[in-house]
Design a protein that fits this description.
Elements: E1 2-8, E2 18-27, E3 30-38, H1 43-64
Antiparallel strand pairs: 1-2, 2-3
Length: 65
Amino acid sequence: MNVLVFSWAWHSTPERESLVTVLLKPDREGTLLTLHHEQFVDQAARDSHEHGWKGMLDNIEKHLA
């Protein structure tokens, strides 16, 4: 398993830093990706990032194939 952990903040709001953890684990003939994003300043920030991550993850397979 590989783990990538990094902090995340927009340039316009560097004080609103959050934490992202990505786990990559071999899974049969592919890879299982688990993403955990935490330490949001409020629920609106969490909801916005959730929307963005879902969009990225929904499209990642076609970009990596």
